[in-house]
Amino acid sequence: MSLLEIKNLSVEFGSQHNPFRAVEGLDLTVEQGEIVGIVGESGSGKSVTMMAMMGLLEGQGRIVADTLQFDGKDLLTISARERRKIVGKDIAMIFQDPMTSLNPSYTVGYQIMEVLKIHQGLRGAALKQRALELMEMVEIPAAASRLAAYPHQLSGGMSQRVVIAMAIACSPKLLIADEPTTALDVTIQAQIMDLLVNLQKSQNMALIMITHDLAVVAEVAHKVAVMYAGQVAEMAKVPGIFRKPAHPYTEALLKSIPEHSKGAHRLSTLAGIVPGQYDRPSGCLLSPRCPYVQDKCKAQRPGLTAIEGGVVRCHYPITAKEA
Amino acid sequence: MLSFIFRRLGLLIPTFFGITLLTFGLIRMIPGDPVEVMVGERTLDPQMHADAMHRLGLDKPLYAQYIDYISNLLHGNLGESLVTKSSVWVEFKTLFPATLELALAAMLFAVVFGLLAGVTAAIKRGSILDHGVMGISLTGFSMPIFWWGLILIMFFSVKLGWTPVSGRLDLAYDITPRTGFMLIDTWLAEAADPAANAGAFKDALMHLILPAIVLGTIPLAVIARMTRSSMLEVLREDYVRTARAKGLSPARVIFVHTLRNALIPVLTVIGLQVGTLMGGAVLTETIFSWPGIGKWLIDAISRRDYPVVQNGILIVATLVIVTNFIVDILYGVANPRIRHAK
């Protein structure tokens, strides 16, 4: 059985009469100890999917799915109280901006220990000892003295390490990193990525990495899901998806990496923007922007079809040539 | 932190001078003088009037009177009432506990219900509850104190007979003032002599409820609105999402992670309400015949009792300034980012 199994997940915002589907018919499975990359433009529904799964949408979004299972538990029917026993313990999440993700009024130590107290019932010396261990695990120098520091006294990189320490406090089975390095300096980004991958190996946890950075995904992920306008456009194993992208959108994403355009005058881009709430085409969502668009694409929405090593949502997947 | 405290203290000196000038000037702008008011409607011989003014030192030019006043102040002499001849400080000390008791009760009422209302409105944002709470608080804020007080008296005291109309305690009780706080004094008296003073504490409490509600209404409305907007702002913060992602209970997310940060601006507002409270106390005490400094000052103004007005207001202003000063320091305690700023 998979650790995480999502089938046909949709998340809607707004009124009943005029809903906006941020996520539509999303399928995703994550095995124990697997690293899955989720890539896509801003607004493609990457974060919303994860927030929906963790119950962080707080009644703002309507969530519908055929299956939403984590570790054998049905997250759709579970009570809020039961869900809170899983969230923060077995599923943990790291957010984009470490400088605003920590509460400015409490010390770093307090915020780490809070998780341990709630989920593991640790108290006293054992609690402090475990917090210190965690700070050392995420390679924070002078960990003992940093426990009493307030978030504003730490740099962005240090804050992100604290957030990571908080997330792995209860040895989660699944860690979700939502663009964990976007807000950091380039040099720090590499350190944080290394740290995450090392922790993933040593703790043997599954890791879902939401990112814009295809290079990172290519390096560490086992599987990649490419999202477009709330749908999975393509999901396939690494490195296959990078060598032979089946979806025109995946191909366009890969072409837009600067290294792939060496010698060219202009960076390759995909013209247009992700369709918004009111201008979604009736056919394939990519059809207005797709370079290979055909009549059928404009008329009919494609479903997911199996390809070698994954699935693709396209009437005419690219098969012949190597990218 | 220490240099911050000293800088703030330095700013107080010009403030005090401003207050002395203002009270000194304003009371003398009111037509009539203490002697005329004392004599009342009887005709007054101009020679006697001049003698009396001379005895009180009020025949000197204004600048000389002001210099006398300030030099007395600097010697720690707050002067004597022109009417009762007793020391302003002693009168203040006797009356102040009554006002303080009323103000504390009003503040307790305002803070408890204001925070509750604000937090509830923020959590249930956009619901009927939110609109209801905010509508009531806007009404409360716009209500004239004297009118609100009279309405409550009419309804609860006159019509329903639940609470007494005025004063601090029923005349049937004879309580020796020990602390000046009626609730404490009656409590002690009841404990010492249960037979003679049965029900005194409850009676004191019943006397306190209506004036405290009247005086606390405006601060309550201000605190409720401020708490609501501040909570809504903090609820959108990333660290609140982090707290939820940690699997904390909704109560913990609201009270530990949200309210603590939302309280910082509310604290300032609470401090500022102390001024409103002192102003409101003057009206409230007059309506409820509450023997505190508000009523004392009103009486002093109508008698043109210059020393009482000048120094009474100066003491009250000092209290307001000191409270705000303490709030500024508390602000640092609540907010580590300010505490650590150099």
Automatic annotation (TrEMBL), chain A:
Family annotation (SUPFAM superfamilies): P-loop containing nucleoside triphosphate hydrolases (SSF52540)
Record CDD domains: ABC_NikE_OppD_transporters
Record GO biological process: peptide transport; transmembrane transport
SMART domains: AAA
Annotated GO CC locations: plasma membrane
The entry's keywords: ATP-binding, Cell membrane, Membrane, Nucleotide-binding, Transport
Single annotated GO MF: ATP binding
Topology in membrane: Peripheral membrane protein
Principal location class: membrane
Cellular localisation: Cell inner membrane
PROSITE patterns, alphabetized: ABC_TRANSPORTER_1 (PS00211), ABC_TRANSPORTER_2 (PS50893)
Domain ABC transporter per the UniProt entry, residue ranges: 4-254
Keyword hit for Transcription regulation: no
Family annotation (PANTHER family): DIPEPTIDE TRANSPORT ATP-BINDING PROTEIN DPPD, OLIGOPEPTIDE TRANSPORT ATP-BINDING PROTEIN APPD
Family classification: Belongs to the ABC transporter superfamily.
Protein name: Dipeptide transport system ATP-binding protein
From TrEMBL, chain B:
Statement: the UniProt record of this protein carries the keyword RNA-binding: no
Signal peptide residue numbers: none
Span of domain ABC transmembrane type-1: 96-331
Main subcellular location of this protein, as a coarse class: membrane
Statement: the UniProt record of this protein carries the keyword RNA-binding: no
Transmembrane segments: 9-30, 102-123, 135-158, 204-224, 262-283, 312-334
Highest taxon above the source species: Bacteria
Gene3D superfamilies: MetI-like
Keyword annotations: Cell membrane, Membrane, Transmembrane, Transmembrane helix, Transport
One Gene Ontology molecular-function label: dipeptide transmembrane transporter activity
Pfam families: BPD_transp_1, BPD_transp_1_N
Protein's UniProt name: ABC transporter permease subunit
Naturally occurring in which organism (per UniProt): Aquitalea aquatica
